[in-house]
Write a structure and sequence with these properties.
The radius of gyration is 23 Å and the shape is globular. The protein folds into two domains: 2-241, ANL, N-terminal domain (Rossmann fold); 342-452, GMP Synthetase, Chain A, domain 3, CATH 3.30.300.30. It is 26% helix and 26% strand. By secondary structure, the chain is an alpha/beta fold. Pfam families: AMP-binding (PF00501), AMP-binding_C (PF13193). One of its GO terms (biological process) is fatty acid metabolic process.
């Protein structure tokens, strides 16, 4: 609202179907908020938002906030029964079509830091969606720190090339609007229109496997904010040659920002965050530990008391089960993935991300998921599923594994898919990959595109 008063003609948001200045956006938000209030939304209520158009989705999110309600962003394909299943006992006011602009008296906006101001779904790479609820300040108070780290300001054009159902992309869009920048929200990966968007964008938020795509032709891009898996040093070098500064971070929907690497020197605690890596309960994890965090940026928990990986210790520390090498304050945090994904094979523990990092560099491999598949004597064997239209030969893959991996880490089974299933954030959907593999091993038809490399 302040940007609308100070720079009314500044372009606030551009989507695939429409664009709005800050003045136009503010007017639509206020009119939509009146409509929601007429429908019974207000303080203490939940507004479920499932809209395909990202511009209309942002209008609805901010209108719910203006009305004092808690916006919950879901999928536009969900029906009422699905919403009831994911929202639990808190029946939301559903928004499944663009909100009308209702005329009337100004809507009073009195935001408080502790408001339950945001809810979004998280399934990570496994499990069923669960709604994560957070306070206003757990997101908005981190904005100035992100501005300092990235240099993003009111004169920037920020590309948000993914679905706003994802907390990574929804945070990016709301941060851009709070900063007074222009948010470009295509609603999905833009594909053929990427070059045109990069001619205007000065900053982009994305996941690691998409970074090389924007570096091929960076256009006006100055900064790339990358969240998710570890970033390959070679890609950071490519970014430097393209004149793009990379700010990579580690976090989770439940934790928000945990650690950030702004210069290639490794992940360091995000401002205000304390990190501990605690010994695992299972000795099979060896020297790896579990990441625990104490921070102002933590979510309150799951909607309706749903079960999830978030755990608390009573002293303000929380964990979602990620594992890392031993950590000392002042040193980089070296993540090794999610503890539950470790593969126990013949008495050895294999961290999938270690294997993936090596094999992802084989020419012809677009991406890779490593999982354990059952074995009668070893318990499980390391199994690699390669994303490739024309996969490299198994001989080349095995030669790389022999040269770079320990015996226990080397995959015994190899499969290929033209395209890996992915989560809303663009991460490989491990649960879906494991389901495809299980069907294949059980002799069921499964996915005809999943084929074994021999």
């Amino acid at each position: 609202m302040s940007h609308a008063a100070e720079r009314p003609a500044r372009l606030a948001v551009r989507g695939p179907l429409s664009e709005l200045t800050y003045e136009e956006l503010a007017d639509k938000i206020e009119g939509a908020a009146r409509h929601l209030l007429d429908r019974g939304a207000g303080p203490g209520t939940l507004v479920g938002i499932g809209l395909a158009d990202p511009v209309e989705l942002l209008v609805a999110v901010l209108a719910a906030d203006l009305a004092g309600a808690t916006p919950l962003v879901g999928d536009h394909t969900w029906d009422a029964a699905r919403w009831a299943g994911v929202a639990g006992a808190e029946a939301p006011v559903l928004v499944n079509e663009p909100l009308p602009d209702v005329a009337g008296a100004p809507v009073r906006h009195d935001p408080r830091p502790g408001d339950r101001a945001w809810a979004c779904f998280s399934s990570g790479s496994t499990g069923r969606p669960r709604a994560v609820v957070r306070s206003r300040e757990s997101w908005t108070a981190s904005y100035p720190h992100l501005n300092d780290l990235t240099g993003i300001g009111p004169d920037d054009v920020v590309l948000v090339p993914g679905p706003l159902l994802s907390s990574l992309y929804s945070f990016a869009a709301l941060h851009a609007l709070a900063t007074g920048a222009t948010a470009m929200v295509p609603g999905r990966w833009p594909g053929g229109s990427l070059d045109a968007l990069l001619d205007e964008a000065t900053a982009v938020h994305l996941v690691p496997h998409r970074l090389p795509d924007v570096l091929d032709r960076p256009g006006s891009l100055r900064t790339a904010v990358v969240g998710g898996a570890a970033l390959d040093p070679d890609v950071r070098g490519l970014a430097a040659r393209a004149g793009v500064r990379v700010v990579a971070y580690y976090g989770a929907t439940e934790l928000s920002f945990v650690a950030v690497d702004a210069d290639g020197g490794g992940l360091r605690p995000f401002p205000g965050v304390q990190i501990e890596v605690r010994a695992m309960e299972s000795p099979a994890e060896g020297s790896l530990g579990e990441v625990w965090v104490r921070s102002p940026w933590l979510a309150e928990g799951y909607l309706g008391g749903a079960a999830g990986p978030l755990r608390r210790d009573g002293a303000g520390w929380v964990s979602v089960g990620d594992v890392a090498e031993p950590y000392r304050e002042g040193e980089p945090l070296r993540l090794r993935g999610r503890g539950g994904g470790a593969i126990q094979t013949g008495g050895a523990t294999v961290v999938p991300e270690d294997v993936e990092e090596v094999l992802r560099k084989v020419p012809g491999v677009g991406d890779i998921v490593v999982v354990g598949s059952p074995h009668p004597s070893l318990g499980a064997v390391v199994t690699a599923i390669i994303e490739a239209g024309a996969p490299p030969s198994r001989a080349l893959l095995e030669a790389t594994a022999r040269g770079r991996l320990d015996v226990a880490q080397r995959p015994r089974r190899w499969y290929a898919l033209p395209s890996l299933p992915r989560t809303g954030t663009g991460k490989p959907a491990r649960a879906q990959v494991e389901a495809l593999l299980a069907a294949q091993l059980a002799g069921r038809p499964g996915d005809a595109e999943l084929r074994r490399l021999v």
